[in-house]
């Protein structure tokens, strides 16, 4: 006797909510909602796997431990009376945040290859909101890295402020700076479209951005051409603000915030306009 | 009744190569429509145009009466999309993967957890919901992607090669879930596949696509009987026979570019 055919599968669970489309958000409420969603994903990923957090702490620790302590003893770089390691710490915070953000484009290309980006592009999310969300998600990742570097610096005896308002300012500066560098990376990703090319370009621009800033030495000791580079390099403004907030050195906080905010806005515009190329 | 999808004269070219060449296609509301064809037939490009991923340089597409070029955001709110690649994020749990899509589709916070739970339950993933998606089998990842698509209550579910690389049991499982969900929600399903047997078994209507155009359209039964009549034989041919007949001598093995094949292989490798 032949077996009776299996009954077709039915959904036995309660799916009443799945029959009703959600009420769309509109206007100004859409952007913060998307940014929060993207940032939540980054935090969830970090909660599941903290390896990246630990491995990325090694390089800044070495910079502070070896370069910072050695140059503090040599006293070769004029730092207006503060120990060189203190002077260096904000530069290393900015550097490690930038290193995370500048390779964010690789994650976007990986998401493109895995189909995740396409799926997000088919949601009711304007491309600018998606890019802003990704940029701030990179900022959150960098911020956590910055906290780790601040703790390492504190352990090495760097005299940092613990004023909560100033630390809040540090957070805002790190997020804005990372938003710009991640958008720079996403913009390049939208042009080169391949991980290998982006990796090469990322490596080619990271060190010039770092050495062409005031992260390691003050503007006054740079040759003229490097001073010009440093003045158009957003990393210099990030470092200037971090030094002012963390160490209390003279800084141009309003200008620094303004430059980083404008740079981030321009970065978001450029990256958004090229995001569609990645979907093709 | 408004058609779920209506494509008129849709044309899309990559350089000199016309991937979609004057496509005329209508998908009726509530049906499971299969778009069949080999690599390079233009299925995925057509799907990308319908989902608003690609602009529509020539022709028109309407989804439930809304123009994809004129109002892409309104169209996206009607869609659930599962791409060919395994697109769940392996570094998030199943629940987190679905929650992300609940958030980007504006599901209110007060009902988010319950809605996500219902989407996971609908595809039998409640028990695995808090495991990382990286630990899921290929079939489970496909079901998770289905849950991601369902959480926003789409009217049109678009699946691009949903069973590629899966073993026969997992393939059947995925299709059973698609059908069960369609039955329970009444949504329209547009699916692309290479597998003629799947289309024969699970699709209400199919369009056989070749070189950017639909060459034959109808229920699987209509197409098979049509070929039997044409041949004047009582033996009912398969859907593959129908496809070979409509494609004629133009059915070569050179379809699909490097990226298509790499993507297909990568998906197949990931599902094991």
TrEMBL record, chain A:
It is found in: Cell membrane; Membrane. It comes from the Bacteria. Residues 51-278 form the ABC transmembrane type-2 domain. It holds the Pfam family ABC2_membrane. The keyword Transmembrane helix applies. Its main location: membrane. One of its GO terms (cellular component) is ATP-binding cassette (ABC) transporter complex. It is a multi-pass membrane protein. The chain crosses the membrane at residues 53-72, 92-110, 143-162, 168-193, 205-226, 253-275. One of its GO terms (biological process) is response to antibiotic. GO terms for molecular function: ABC-type transporter activity. Keywords: Antibiotic resistance, Cell membrane, Membrane, Transmembrane, Transmembrane helix, Transport. PANTHER family: NODULATION PROTEIN J (PTHR43229). Belongs to the ABC-2 integral membrane protein family. This is Transport permease protein. It comes from Streptomyces pseudovenezuelae.
Automatic annotation (TrEMBL), chain B:
SUPFAM superfamilies: P-loop containing nucleoside triphosphate hydrolases (SSF52540). It comes from the Bacteria. One of its GO terms (molecular function) is ATP binding. GO terms for cellular component: plasma membrane. InterPro entries: AAA+_ATPase, ABC_transporter-like_ATP-bd, ABC_transporter_ATP-binding, P-loop_NTPase. GO terms for biological process: response to antibiotic. Pfam families: ABC_tran. Keywords: Antibiotic resistance, ATP-binding, Nucleotide-binding, Transport. Belongs to the ABC transporter superfamily. This is ABC transporter ATP-binding protein. It comes from Streptomyces pseudovenezuelae.
């Amino acid at each position: 006797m032949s077996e009776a055919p299996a009954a077709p599968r039915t959904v036995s669970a309660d799916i009443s909510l799945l029959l009703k489309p959600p009420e769309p958000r509109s206007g100004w409420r859409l952007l913060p909602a998307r940014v929060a969603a993207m940032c939540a994903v980054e935090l969830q990923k970090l909660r599941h796997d903290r390896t990246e957090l630990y491995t990325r702490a090694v390089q800044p620790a070495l910079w502070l431990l070896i370069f910072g302590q050695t140059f503090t003893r040599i006293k070769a770089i004029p730092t207006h009376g503060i120990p060189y390691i203190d002077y260096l710490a904000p530069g290393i915070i900015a550097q490690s945040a930038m290193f995370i953000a500048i390779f964010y484009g690789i994650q976007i290309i990986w998401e493109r290859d895995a189909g995740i980006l396409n799926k997000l592009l088919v949601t009711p999310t304007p491309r600018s909101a998606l890019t802003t969300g990704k940029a701030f998600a990179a900022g959150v990742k960098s911020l956590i890295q910055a906290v780790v570097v601040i703790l390492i610096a504190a352990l090495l005896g760097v005299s940092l402020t613990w004023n909560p308002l100033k630390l809040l300012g540090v957070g805002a500066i790190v997020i804005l700076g990372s938003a710009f560098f991640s958008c720079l990376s996403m913009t390049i990703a939208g042009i080169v479209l391949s991980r290998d090319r982006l990796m090469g370009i990322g490596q080619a621009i990271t060190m010039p951005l770092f050495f062409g800033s005031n992260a390691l030495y003050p503007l006054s000791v740079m040759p003229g051409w490097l001073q010009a580079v440093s003045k158009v390099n957003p990393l210099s403004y990030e470092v200037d603000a971090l030094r002012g907030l963390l160490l209390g050195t003279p800084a141009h906080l309003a200008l620094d915030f303004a430059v980083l905010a404008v740079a981030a806005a321009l970065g978001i515009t450029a990256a958004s306009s090229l995001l569609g190329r990645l979907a093709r | 009744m408004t058609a779920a999808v209506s494509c008129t004269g849709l044309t899309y070219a990559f350089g000199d190569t016309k991937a979609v060449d004057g496509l005329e296609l209508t998908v009726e509301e509530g049906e499971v429509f299969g778009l069949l064809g080999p690599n390079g037939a233009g299925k995925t490009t057509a799907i990308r145009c319908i989902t608003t991923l690609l602009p529509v340089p020539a022709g028109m597409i309407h989804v439930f009466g809304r123009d994809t070029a004129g109002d892409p955001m309104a169209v996206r709110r009607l869609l659930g999309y599962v791409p060919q690649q395994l697109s769940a994020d392996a570094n998030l749990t199943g629940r987190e993967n679905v929650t992300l899509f609940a958030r980007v589709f504006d599901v209110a916070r007060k009902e988010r957890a319950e809605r996500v739970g219902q989407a996971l339950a609908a595809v039998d993933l409640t028990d695995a919901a808090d495991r990382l998606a990286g630990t899921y089998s290929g079939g489970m990842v496909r079901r998770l992607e289905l849950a991601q698509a369902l959480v926003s209550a789409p009217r049109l579910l678009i699946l691009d090669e949903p069973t590629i690389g899966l073993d026969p049991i997992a393939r059947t499982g995925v299709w059973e879930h698609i059908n069960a969900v369609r039955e329970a929600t009444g949504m329209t399903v547009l699916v692309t596949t290479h597998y003629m047997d799947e289309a024969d078994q699970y699709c209400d209507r199919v369009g056989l696509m070749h070189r950017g155009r639909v060459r034959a359209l109808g229920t699987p039964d209509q197409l098979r009987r049509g070929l039997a009549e044409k041949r004047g034989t009582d033996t009912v041919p398969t859907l593959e026979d129908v496809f070979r007949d409509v494609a004629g001598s133009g059915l070569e093995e050179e379809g699909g570019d490097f990226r298509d094949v790499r993507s297909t292989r990568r998906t197949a490798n990931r599902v094991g």
